[in-house]
Write a structure and sequence with these properties.
Helix content: 55-70%
Number of strands: 0
Low-confidence stretches: 261-277
CATH class: Mainly Alpha
Distance between the termini: 68 Å
Largest sheet: none
Radius of gyration: 20 Å
CATH topology: Rhopdopsin 7-helix transmembrane proteins
Number of helices: 9
Order of helices and strands: HHHHHHHHH
CATH architecture: Up-down Bundle
CATH superfamily: Rhodopsin 7-helix transmembrane proteins
Strand content: under 5%
Structural class: mainly alpha
Length: 277
Amino acid sequence: MAKTDTQFLYFTYYPKDVYPDVAMALYFLATIVLIVQIIRQKAQLWLYILPVTAFAEGLGYVFRLLCVRNTTFTLYVLMTLFLLLPPNAMALANYKTVGKIMAQSLARPRWFFLRPKFVNWFYFASDILSIALQGTGGGMMTSYKRRDAGKKIVLLGLIVQLFFFACFLATTFYVGSKQAYVVGTGTRSAKRKVLFTIVATTVLLYLRSIYRIVEFADGYGGKIYSAEWAFYAFDTIVILLAFIVYIAVPLGPHFVRGKAVLNEEASPLSTHIEPKD
C-alpha cells in the first residue's frame, strides 16, 4: 500500500508535517520552563505533574510527526494515546492544588463532600476512571473491528470527565468564596492568583474535552475528525494556552516545600466552620 494511501486510511486526510514540529518544540519548551520555575521556587514536588504532562504532550507530537512521515499502526496507536491522555494529568494537578488549600486551612465544612480527604480521593478516582476509559477506548479504536465500541468508551470517558470538571469548578468556587480557605501567607492576592490559574486551566480543559466529544461523536471520517485545523485549534493550542497560564501565573510560589499554609483569617469560633482535629 502506498504511503499516501496509508496516511489517508488512518487520518482520513493528508496531514502536514510542519505543524507537529512546531507543537513538539513548544511543548518541550514549556517542559523546560516549568521545571526551571519549580526548582527556582522550591515548589512542592507534586507540581512536577505539570512538566511531566507537557513532556508527554511533546512526545505525542513526536509520534505524530513520525506517523505523518511514515504512517504505521504502531505509531498511530502511540500518537493517539499520547495526545488523548496527558491532559487528564493536568486536571490531577488542579485537583491536588485545591485539595492542598483545603487540607492546610483551619476550616473543615460539616458536609462530607467538601472535606479535604473526600475531595482528594473523589477527584483522584475520577481522573483515574477517565484515563482508564479513554485509554481503553483509544486503544480499541486503532482496530477496525473494535473502532465503534472504542469510540463509545472514549465518549463515555470524556463525558465522565466533563461531569467531574463541573463538580470540581463548583468546589473551587466554594473555596474561593470562603475566607477560611487561604493560600500561602493568607493574602487575598495569593488566593486570587491561585484560583485564577485553577479556574482558567480547568475551563480550557473543559473546552478541549467538548471538542474531543464532538470529534468522536462525529465519527471516523466525519467533518470534525477529518479537519486537521480543528485538532490544532481546539486541542493543541487550547492545551498549550493552559500551560502558558501555569507559567504566567505559577502555583509554585504558594506551595513551597517545608512551608504550610498560614491561615490568619480563619477563626475556629466561626459558626460555619469547624477547627481541624
